[in-house]
Amino acid sequence: MAEFKDNHKDESIKKLKELAIGIDICMFCTQLDQLPISARPMSCNEVDDQGNLWFISNARSNKNFEIKQDDKVQLFFSQISNSHYLSVFGHATIYNDQSTIDQHWEPIAKAWFEEGKEDPDVSIIKITPSDAYYWDTKDGKAIAFLKWAANAMGAGVDDGGVEGNIKL
């Protein structure tokens, strides 16, 4: 059975940064009240000191349109190779002003925006989390695998898993 951690705010923001930036790509879901929900892979380029997650997006994308209709979003981060998982529910805000774009621009985004950060289609999305939960390993992948194998043979050892709430 996994160890449960109920993190305090500072620990929570640290864990959120560690997982979101370490995993990088998430499934960014919108239209949560409709089935099927809309989901697409997105790269999180920053988690700030308040725990907000920042993304670069095309202002004319379906995602931006959907956020304007309903700002609730769900982010699912998964890194199977290291058994790191993160689920974040929150509210999205879209920024189109140049100062916010300048602040959160990443040079790699030029691959999607021909004119760079001055491209008129660049927007920045901030996700303000209201609920987040993670699953992780405390011993690393190799040790966790050995513990899982031992448990499969009936050893009954701690599986090396850690899970918990992220409070922001």
Please outline what is shown here.
The protein has 168 residues and is α+β, with helices and mostly antiparallel strands.
Shape label: globular
| Unreliable stretches covering 5 or more consecutive residues | 140-151
Give the proportion of residues in helices.
25-40%
**Total DSSP helices:** 4
Distance between the termini: 26 Å
Please, how many domains?
1
Give me the count of strands: 9
**Average of per-residue pLDDT values:** 86
Radius of gyration: 18 Å
CATH architecture: Roll
CATH topology: Pnp Oxidase, Chain A
Describe it.
With 168 residues, this protein is α+β, with helices and mostly antiparallel strands. It is 25% helix and 39% strand. It has one domain (3-166): Electron Transport, Fmn-binding Protein, Chain A (Pnp Oxidase, Chain A). It is globular and about 45 Å long.
